[in-house]
Amino acid sequence: MQILDGQFVSQFIKDELKLETAQLVVEGKKVPHLAAVLVGNNGASETYVGAKVKTCTEIGFKSTLIRLEESISEYKLLTIIEQLNNDADVDGILVQLPLPKHISDEKVINAIHPSKDVDGFHPENTGRLVQGLPAFVPATPHGIMLLLEHYKIDTKGMHAVVVGRSNIVGRPMSILLSSNTNPGNCTVTICHSQTKNLNDFCRQGDIIVAALGKPEFVTGDMVKDGAIIIDVGITRVADASRKSGFALKGDVHFAEVAPKSSYITPVPKGVGPMTIAALMKNTFKACLDRNSNS
To answer: Is the pTM of this model over 0.90?
Structure first.
């Protein structure tokens, strides 16, 4: 069993981006600029956005954090996004989800210009991904593919089982794994809450991507020997023995599954850091695209 160390690989990618950004400065070109919009004061969202802004600083990107009251109207938020669309200095825009219930996620995602949609959620980028055209790929699936690529895992012909069908992880993950690429070229099964005999499908998986948000859902009896395990979930679970009062658990029961696996991502320090690294790669790409088109 080998740990797929997302912390290490993400740092490797960030170091590369730092060098490439420094080269842009030497050449007198603009550096990537990421604008992050945070609505309300959700604790998890604060943490995620804070990590993204910190990473921008580390690698030499410019970043702008726009904090908005939870009570902001949908119209006002859409107006701010349009201002960012029209700002020539901004390369990438991300609006941290989830949003307050009175604001439509769909309207906000659709309002971001596809060329600045570094989260890869806009329907145009989704459509291009499905058709195998250049696109911004959602950061978590993109990060997972970068992780498999770094460890030179040949997935050709494998049966991949993706547990979860969200537009953020499950669906784009299934497209990437089935694409004519390496990593890729898998036969993919998507499972979800309505799947019958879910355990049987999981036991067939050469690769299991667990992305359903249920702590320790995938147990040892659901995994065949030698499987590659990608754990996307991260949930705070009460734990009185810890100073923080909680433990972070993935969707996979690590203690049971790890001994049976050939490769496995830990939680934390697995998929999470890779998500941020992939977002930075998307932002850098957006900047290069804008430089070449200016």
So the answer is: yes
